[in-house]
Amino acid sequence: MPLPGPGSRSSRLWGATGLVVVLAVFAAVVPWQVPPATTTTAAGPRHTTVEVSRGACGHGWHDARPGLQVFDLRNTSDVASEVYLEDPATRAVYGEVEGVGPGTTRSLTVDLGKGAYAFRCVPDDGDAITGPTVRVTSGQGGPAAAPVSRQDLIPPSIAYQKWVAGGLDRVVRLTGDVRDAVDRGDLAAARRAWLPAHLEYERLGAAYDAFGDADGQINGTDAGLPGGVGDPSFTGFHRIEYGLWHGRSAGSLRAPAGALVAAVTALRDSWSQTRMDPAQLGLRAHEILENTVQFELTGRTDYGSGSNLATARANLDGTREVLSRLRPLLSTRYPELPELDRELDETQDTLDGLAPDGEWTPLSRLTRAQREKVDAALDGLVERLASVATLCEPRRTV
């Protein structure tokens, strides 16, 4: 399951439901004349222009009212800046916008209620500046979340990395079973051994980025290869899968099976010297199932075994492993954590129901109702896990 690099989240809103919504934002170079500080349109919430600069961070917001509001953050300085709207006493964040460039305006939508608010500007090359405190005297707005620092993420990252080490031990053992079956010419046994080995690897999804080129050798596809499934660069689990389910001989699979065991063994042996980036752990929790939807539920990684739903189930296990390490941070920051747990359980039940007697249903044999239920369950989890990624992204505190 290939994972893309870290995504960009330009603006966030902690809304009334407790979800962190990733907002689309508009960045444009604006004239240097100052527009009216506050405007109201019939089509939507109030707009207030707020200055972003070293000397005037947060200036322009005077008429504080409860409810949904849009702050147009106008950077009048010569450097880009991150901007947070926070509680000045607790530093809990209500919303943020990253990368407000010089001479540009970016929008932040926030639901305000009774409380104290201040903008904090964090320029790329300088210390953070906190603007004036503004008080809203009524209403119930969206919740705030305490910022997560890189230091906060080091313990869960180390714990997860240790768990991955144990997983790689199991992958080495299970791929050895595949190789041994191929070596003795027992392709039926090789097919039975292939799926447990592949699923054990798939459960390590949050570590793929740290695996580097080894992941392509172990779990790559033929996408982009000039020779397709016959290309010499097509290796690993899916190369063996293709051969096992397309009538290839044991002799033709001995070299690929041996190469797979060598690749996973080398990865395991080097893992103790690898350092995962703690800042990426929350993002990976989201990307595991995001890629499940993109690659497994579309059948793009099926080379004959029909095991995409089994892989989706393994990816769900992998997501739970990441969340278990992040739970101490999420329990005080993410009010919807119980709902996320419930949806994880329901999705697990849905997928398990598609493996009667331990035999996984291929995607092509799902009924329309079954397919819609699986799609809805995974899509819902991906949306919720975007909130986890945003909440666990480390923020500058000075």
Descriptive labels:
A middle domain of Talin 1; 12 strands; alpha+beta; Immunoglobulin-like; 398 residues; 7-stranded antiparallel sheet; 2 domains; single chain; 5-stranded mixed sheet; 16% strand
What's this, in brief?
The chain is of the alpha+beta class and 398 residues long. It has helices spanning 150-183, 187-202, 208-211, 213-219, 237-244, 250-271, 281-296, 308-330, 337-352, 368-391, and strands spanning 11-14, 20-22, 28-29, 38-39, 46-52, 67-75, 81-86, 93-100, 104-112, 115-123, 129-130, 134-136. Helix 2 (187-202) runs parallel beside helix 8 (308-330) and helix 7 (281-296) packs antiparallel against helix 8.
Give your account of this protein's structure.
With 398 residues, this protein is α+β, with helices and mostly antiparallel strands. It folds into 2 domains: 11-136, Immunoglobulin-like (Sandwich), CATH 2.60.40; 150-391, Up-down Bundle (A middle domain of Talin 1), CATH 1.20.1420.20. Helix content is 43%, strand content 16%. The protein is built from 10 helices and 12 strands. The strands form 2 sheets. Strands 1, 2, 7, 8, 10, 11 and 12 form a 7-stranded antiparallel beta sheet that branches. Strands 3-9-6-5-4 form a 5-stranded mixed beta sheet, with no helix packed on it. Strand 1 and strand 2 (20-22) form a beta hairpin. The longest helix is centred in the middle third of the chain and has 34 residues, at 150-183. The chain starts with 10 loop residues before the first strand and ends in a 7-residue tail after the last helix. Mean pLDDT is 87; it is low at 2-42.
